[in-house]
Design goal:
Blueprint lengths: L15 E8 L2 E3 L5 E4 L4 H12 L7 E7 L2 E5 L13 E8 L6
Parallel strand pairs: 1-6
Antiparallel strand pairs: 1-2, 1-3, 4-5, 4-6
């Protein structure tokens, strides 16, 4: 291979993300991250957190992540990949704050 030939790099898509969920009731998992397939829906991990932390009800809760573009809400009904999440994912999950008036 000469110095002028382009180097071919095989890019393998990530198959897993590492997820930590922060709530007002605590963290899930209690320490570190859970390894989760990128094609799992976010709601599956949120449901585990709700059970483990005994959180009820959560129907009006929202999930946010902090990324390069700042804090953004993610859709729990979509997968991690569909939410454009990769690597270590720190989810802040809690009640939607109502506006006072």
């Amino acid at each position: 291979m000469s110095a002028n030939e382009p180097q071919v790099v095989n890019v393998v898509p990530e198959k897993f993300v590492e997820v930590s969920i922060s709530t007002t009731a605590g963290f899930y998992p209690a320490e570190g991250y859970d390894q989760v397939p990128v094609d799992d829906k976010v709601e599956l991990q949120l449901e585990k957190a709700a059970r483990d932390l005994d959180i009820k009800p959560t129907s009006d809760w929202i999930a946010n992540v902090n990324g390069p573009e700042g804090l953004r809400e993610i859709d729990p009904m979509k997968t991690y990949m569909e939410n454009r999440l990769s690597g270590q994912v720190d989810i802040d999950w809690g009640p939607k704050e109502g506006g006072g008036g």
